[in-house]
Batch of 4 targets.
Target 1
Amino acid sequence: MPPEKRFLINAEALFKATLACSVSRDLHLAHERYCPQLPWLLPWQPNASANGRILEMVLRCLCFVKGDTCHLLQGVPSIWFDFGVPLGVDRLCVGGSLLTFSVAPVETGRARWRLSYSCQGAWIPRRFVIALPGRTPGDRAMREFLTGGKANGHGTLGE
């Protein structure tokens, strides 16, 4: 197994464990040192910085910037693609611009996807690298989309 695939599997496991074990069951807020059976750990202590880190993890699963390249859906669990609905964000601040993007299936199946994007601001990525479902379940195919310096665009990705 290539190291990148091992890394993605481990990262997804850590992400799921964090969401399952380190948040309260009622409000899904991160907490620290809380156990109702141990009175010396009371009262309940919310952990605001951990809440921010969880949100940051979710956002980085969807989008992150490295150099002049914007990487999309690199850390998204494979099952998110199985529902056949668009994945994206609206007005996320990256590189000093507000980025809106959507990756939606063109037809049933996992072969073709439509990317649409809009950048409002001075920064426009030179290219997008999108991690789409591969030929076999759990695999990813990296697709590149060049922006040509345009602030808005769309195109079809895949086979």
Target 2
Amino acid sequence: ASSTTGIYATAGCENPEAFIENDLATGPRCFADPDYVHHVALEVWGKGKLAAFHERFRSMPQVIPLNVGDIGYQGNEGLYVFQTQVDMAFAGGLMLDFYRGYNFSIHAPDAYFEKYSAIDAAKLKPCNETALRLDGGENLAAGYVAVSSDWGGVETTASGSLVGRCWGGHWWLAPSCRGSPERCIPVITGGHGWYVPDIMQKAAAFQMPLALATARSTEHWRELGNAHDVIIYWWEPQPMASKRPVRIMFPPYDKLKRDRNILLSQSESILLSKLTAQSLAGGAPMVYTMLAQFSISSDDMKGMLEGSACRDQDSCVDVACAWLRGKEAVVAAWRNASNASVDVSCRPGQGAVSSAGFTSSRDANAIGCAICPPGCFSQLPRFQGASLALGSSDFQGREAAPSGGWFCSQCPAGKSSHRLGASQCEKCPAGRFSGSTLTSLCTTRGDLCKDCPGGHFSSVGGSTVCDRCPAGKVSEMSERSTSCKECAPWYVPDAEAAECLSRHVHPGNYSLIMQVLLFWMLLVAFWYYVITAVAL
């Protein structure tokens, strides 16, 4: 996930990947009182992203994630070439990990790369779907011309907008190789055009023979980098399955020029941040404290990624676990920090938990908070053994106990909760009931209200038991019985008053009836025969 997705996720937004949409409620679905699902985001890039988030969420400061410090190593982004090509070029006296090695007026760096025509166009986005021409493309093109004076790299659309020029439907070509495009070095980026303004300005200013395209998907971006000898937009730390990317060094980072949109210097190295949801500090203070101490050095991270079996999520987990097993002292320091005395203070909708499950908010063994499940509700402790539920008639104007936060309690008889994080219980509807519970602490994992059994009913909400149907009436188990009904004519209730049965004689007497009927039929036939014979 991207850094921005991580920020929105730890803010409790239900669809954090839709952060680009303007409407917070219908896009990323961010609300002032979220049900948190994601609590931690690691390796968050850029103070600017956090600043933009703060600005957007000024009216909801309670959801803004907490920054618990940097993770211990820096993040870098830029243009990368692969180690095999660097080594081959160095043997020939050319440095491909330095921008001057790409000066097409002096060197022939294209000899170490594939031709851009070898790249499968089906795995590339059309120019109209990239930063060259999407919203903001006009600013990109204007900024490029202001730095390079290269009007050949831009064009004017029918609507009068200035956008990046496109070759072959997918590529932007640098000025130094437009006369011999077969010698342009393919550069692959991702997203809608990560780093495209930087690449265009650098290519023009330093006479780099580049052909720039954007991969159709993140998977295609990785695939093309692994399968071809290209330059790739990359960032570190990040593993690559079969190659070792090496960063191409440009002039040192120049903030003053970058603030003026002159992007010829190296990108700024950024200390990567650790973010947590606001609820984590009170809900799981041991985890929060450990995260604050959690740190990995740049050398350790580089050592894990270089020459390791880290190719996908599962294999990278194995690499991380192997590193942890070899760093017992480091891990012990994290644990010692988290084992310090903690103060569990849960929010409404949550309750204190220990290793044994839900517990009292004043339990010294409480280690964090969890959302109250259906069948339970969140409440505050009160003085003198009383308790208080949010939204109850006694809540307003009463003062909660000075220590201890919210805890999860079982709904009382006749009531239940039907969702996660309930702060009060509702009466069971008519036709349903809930009996008494054995404990006040939350132990259930589902709705307590049950349908009345056959032959029983409840006509009002909040029932703790269901009443037996009066004689001669029934209630069926297939429906929530709020009353009993009489059977239709020729039907009678069964023994449980759960259904109506036909008045027909029990099937066990069928053979006897048939015998009697047959006897009378034969008797009638006999006397008919006798009378007829006498008459003759």
Target 3
Amino acid sequence: MKSAPTSRVSVSGIPDDTLDELDALAEAEDKSRSEKIVELIEAEVGERLPDDNDEYRPSDPSLNTVYTVAVDHAKQHQLRFDLHKSKMATETGIPGTALRGYLVSLQREGYVKHQMGDALGSGSDADFWRIKPLCANPRAWRYSEVYDPEYVAELESMTPEETLGRLENATPARGQADD
């Protein structure tokens, strides 16, 4: 597997007491300052970049597991949670009573969206969740709580060549957008 290129970054203007706190955090985890900074950066922007398969997945292993299983059980990107909760609990190893909390966390990060009201249009009180397609950037998925309409408008105003150039030179906050 080819590793991503890395860069050296220099930052100034950080107060000494903030650096002391960072060093204490790093030392408590038996890490160097650089390792801790890389970890913090990856936690902040890592999910905003597609992986090697051009998929956007949560960086937290538990959330990624729940999201993957939700994708597997969804029909046309909709999950009827009340029918699939037991199977999902078995596949994830997470109690069914706790799965909703994981879905709420995924919703805050833009990976799923709870469907409010009568999703079936028949007076049903079924528990539906919209599941983001793997290839969709959470910032560009229209059901996401982190949806950024300015970002989407910027992408839509670009020519195909500009869009391709943007994807080839993606910044940490930008990536491929699909719905």
Target 4
Amino acid sequence: MKQYKKLLLKKLNEHGWELVAQDSDCDWWLEEYWTIRSTRANWGLELLVLFLVDPHYDGHLKHQGVWAVSVAHDMPIDRSDAERRLVLISIKSHFNQEVDILLDAINDYRNGDYQYGAYH
């Protein structure tokens, strides 16, 4: 597992989210996705964590082309749709800070305090 995924999983667990499923049988634009479940407030709420492949990546190993992580409440229909979901963060720089933005967004969503467009 890539280092950024290990960090993300660790932080998710610390914030009351558990990984319940992983799927890598995906379209070209999606390396894999995780299903996560809340273990705190709004117990049982499930979200999808999507690992997006750069549209300009032309390699054969999709995990090497991941550029961003998005979170959605249901499966997006395409890459564009995935980029407009609850939150979108880059893995390319300042990932530690970006992960905190992702956590703020999904924790606010879980608690009913989510504000679309407020997480940058």
